[in-house]
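Fold this complex.
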Amino acid sequence: MNHAIWTEGLVKRFGETTALAGVDLAVRTGTILGLLGPNGAGKTTAVRVLATLLRPDAGHATVGGYDVARDAHRVRQLIGLTGQYASVDETLTGAENLLLIGRLLGVPRREAKQRARELVAKFDLEQAADRAAKTYSGGMRRRLDLAASLVGRPRMLYLDEPTTGLDPRSRLELWDLVRSLVADGVTVLLTTQYLDEADKLADEIAVIDHGRVIATGTPDELKAKIGAQSLAVRPADEADLPTVVSVVGELAGVAPDVEGQLVTAPVVDPVLLPAVVRRLDDAGVLIAELALRSSSLNEVFLSLTGRPAEETSENEDSEGVPA
Amino acid sequence: MTSITAPSSPELAPSVSPIEGLRQTATLAWRTLVQIRHNPWELSDFSIQPIMFVLLFTYVFGGAIAGATGKYLTFALPGIIVMNMLFVTMYVGTGLNTDLTKGVFDRLRSLPVARWAPLAGRITADLVKQAWSIALLLGVGTILGFRIGTSALALLGAVALLLAFALAFSWVSVLVGLLARDPEKVQLFGFTALFPITFVSNVFVRTETMPGWLQAFVDVNPVTILADATRGLMLGGRVAGPVIGSLLWAAVIVVVFAPLSVWAFKRRV
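Structure:
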């Protein structure tokens, strides 16, 4: 067994709310697992348990072979945590934050300063290194957060929604950083609400809903199962709408979603697009709009659970601002 | 380019040694104190504010209360030092609350540091602020005419007693910091609870001038007892009784508030 992170039947309750209802995860060493789910699905709770911040009510979790509850101190020496709830000190400068963590990890002052300089350079924060972190932009803050979690050269890195709220460019930059870390042999647990993020970064994806893993697989396996793209067709003439709905429905194998004049259906088989075009052309239907676009998390949930992703915000509240 | 995550040595310590814990505490105290450099307003909070109190009470009310400003300064300064000490302990709670609400606390707890180090670091930093405030008030008092009537040793005793009481009272601040939703609420508590408690004491006026029912409260108020002990140690007079009383109060505060804080901590994280 070569799993850097492994959980079995993880349960965590907050009062009446069950945040984790028996979560099984297995992350192979040196790979990225994408934990995909809507707000309140239990992603953050799972990360907090694996980061030794929460004790599970039932089940087991090991990191690097060490039990998170019984051997918490050893686990803490292996992990790095970056997330909305594990943050840097805003009143300190970026460099001071990195120095602080180095010193806390027992690195001598000179080396800790050296390490801080190294990370500041790597994360493109040189200009801002001596400014208070509260003056940083969103993208800079995330980079500093990530740098802070790397001071101790962790073997396992938890990234809790690392790109939520970032602009597209900062997002791509962060993805590149994560890839370079994995190239160095780090194991990454990434939580995200974005299917394309899990698709682009993860070696394996676990879809989590209401504290339960409802699907796992490589991005390709999942996409084959759920349709990572969807086809959208809009007829030029309103009168052709029923024809379009029936053709798309027949070829896609599921009842398409109709919104106004726009007909959408998940694409499981890539031959769907040419087939739809051919049939509509044969039927003499004029098409005003035809597009293939990435499925949203909502569509993933629709095809996995038959219902849209629900934001059960009460979970995340009771665990978030740890109230 | 150097590799950002060269494999770490596989030697993992099973737990934190107490020495490491103390070193981490010192690092975390440094972190709290270095913030002052970026936020000089905080320094003014526990520097200018107490000096204002000394000046206002001495020159505005002093004549009316004691007949002469110099005489009043001698009476009031030890008490003002006590009052200021209680207010400064609130930084422990506001700081702790900020760390909790901003997520800094989670990051610290995900690191292999002693579980008690983050709190101990805050309290250590607070004691440095306390020592600074006491020295500042004594310095300003001396310029205005306050004179120590006892010995250097007794003065050191007074400072030690004040710091010991601050240490005990930090538990109140910790509890408030854990229960409050945001740092502002902690400060609000400081004003709404500490102001009456410190004013209904003999810090500013003699107990005999108050109505009887109020005297009953003033006499048992730990602020009064600690102010008496500080006066005794700085100016002379009764010492043993108030000092013992202050230490007893400190012990009671720890016995009540430390377990409550532990409970609130477990509930919150």
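Chain A is about 35% helix and 30% strand.
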